[in-house]
């Protein structure tokens, strides 16, 4: 029980196979492994995602989710990740990444979009990482030096999408940013306890997700 992430799951016991929905916007979230099929149809104008950056990162998240379905190569994980991005087919895609596979991420985005931009940002207010953006147009926004607690809000504010997807929802930063700016949100997350934290944080912000009966 080392990775409980507090008691949010006891309040919002979301399980794999369930879809939880915010009734007004019909935003949807689910526990899901992005190596498998998406749990519901996603039609999002924008993706903003802090995905795992390398093999060790992926396997650490798998461990924390109480699973043992570890990956043998990061390339196979990237195949799954970008397969889902292509399936969603957003107009713009933001990815937070580390240095190790930065060029691989950029090359894959460049195969999908005519314009790819990058900025060096920070996480935990001190550690360097990168934000890359793929679209068919250049943005006037500058994210240089910003912390990743801020960048989802800044990106959604500039892009003004009607809908946003995050396949690595985690504890809900992109979810909260999407709702703040009135965008419909689609999210999946491997770890049910982390996703419950996102539901809890949303509720504290006045956005209420509940289990629905889509299937």
CA-CA gap between termini: 30 Å
Percentage of residues in DSSP E strands: 15-25%
* Helix content bin: 25-40%
DSSP strand count: 9
Look at the structure and give the mean pLDDT.
96
User: What's the helix count?
Assistant: 7
List the helices and strands and how they pair.
Layout lengths: L7 H4 L7 E4 L4 E5 L14 E4 L5 H10 L9 H15 L3 E6 L4 H9 L4 E9 L3 E9 L15 H9 L3 E4 L6 H8 L3 E6 L2 H13 L5 E2 L4
Parallel strand pairs: 2-8, 3-4, 3-7, 7-8
Antiparallel strand pairs: 1-2, 1-9, 4-6, 5-6
3D structure, described in words:
The chain is α/β, with parallel strands linked by helices and 215 residues long. It is built from 7 helices and 9 strands, in the order H-E-E-E-H-H-E-H-E-E-H-E-H-E-H-E. The protein has helices spanning 8-11, 55-64, 74-88, 102-110, 151-159, 173-180, 192-204; strands spanning 19-22, 27-31, 46-49, 92-97, 115-123, 127-135, 163-166, 184-189, 210-211. A 9-stranded mixed β-sheet has the order 5-6-4-3-7-8-2-1-9. It is globular and about 40 Å long. 41% of the residues are buried. The model has no long low-confidence stretch (mean pLDDT 96).
